Amino acid sequence: MSLPKVYVGLPIQEAGLELLRGKVEFKIWKEDGPPSREVLFKELEGADGLISGLPFRVDGELMDVSPKLKVVSNYAVGYDNIDVPAATKRGILITNTPDVLTAATADLALLLILATARRAFEANEFMRSGKWKTWGPDLLVGMEVSGSTIGIIGMGKIGGAVARRAFGFGMKIIYYSEERRLDIEESCGAKFVSMEELLKESDIVTLHCLLNEQTRNMFGEAQFQMMKKTAIFINTARGAIVDQKALYKACSEKWIWAAGLDVYEAEPVPLDDPILKLTNVTTLPHIASASNVSRNGMARKAAINLLEALQGNRPPDLVNPEAWK
Ligand code: GLV
Ligand code: GLV
Hints:
This protein is an alpha/beta fold and 325 residues long. 34% of the residues lie in helices and 14% in strands. The strands form 2 sheets. It has a 7-stranded parallel sheet, with helices on both faces. Helix 8 links the parallel strand 7 and strand 8 (191-192). The longest helix is centred in the C-terminal third of the chain and has 19 residues, at 292-310. The radius of gyration is 21 Å and the shape is globular. The chain starts with a strand and ends in a 15-residue tail after the last helix. The site of one glyoxylic acid has 7 residues, from helix 7.
């Protein structure tokens, strides 16, 4: 019997590939940048499974290339790069990689909070460009993180991990989410509040929700205007949750004090994007889950979800249970 045919659309870690060997026949994209639409159309012909990722979109048209396609296993926790309703309609299973990247992503949110509040990247630049003349009482003074109030929007696994870290810093934690998290309320003293109260009270506002039709563009001028002038805004979730023009305005016109970003409306961010010119905006290139442990875990999960689906089993991280029968 021939093995199922799989296309791996991005160069995932060996930890995942070794699980695939001998079980499926796979081809893998290894070039710089994402595979083009043409490449995807060609490689998906006759495929039973696809390992996808954030660099390319998977829509109905692409799914239709192979009538045999059973599963799209996304190497990410977010799956806004996939048209999930289109997959469900076709009976194609969609999976993601939760849990293994929770700690790494929460760590990076804390890194952005600390670096933005204490102006670490600006200070690094200052020193390397020869501007450091003396120790000074006013030199690169930032915002104190310990004891500040953090507002967490989206208290899922990552939001909860951020709360536990914030608790360790003695922060006061308020949150807004689809569901109450009594465990986090108990362990970290987190308080559930309205969105408006969160925006008005927080010294740090940090996003940890999925991008979907409810959250797309949820954060705009009105939200930034409600925030304190001394507050910082952190985004490690998805750029499109935020109106980036409004964010630029809020930071350049000092409606808020600063921002720390790992995600953007368009990625990669064009070099001439004015957001890259602001000294009060800390920018990282979407690396929240980029720790060795996390990326190996994501590769393994992507492989396991794919193999389970191809063997006719319900994959552990199924995103569209409606497609499972
Ligand atoms: C990364 O952004 C992910 O969703 O895993
Ligand atoms: C992370 O695993 C999340 O779903 O928040």
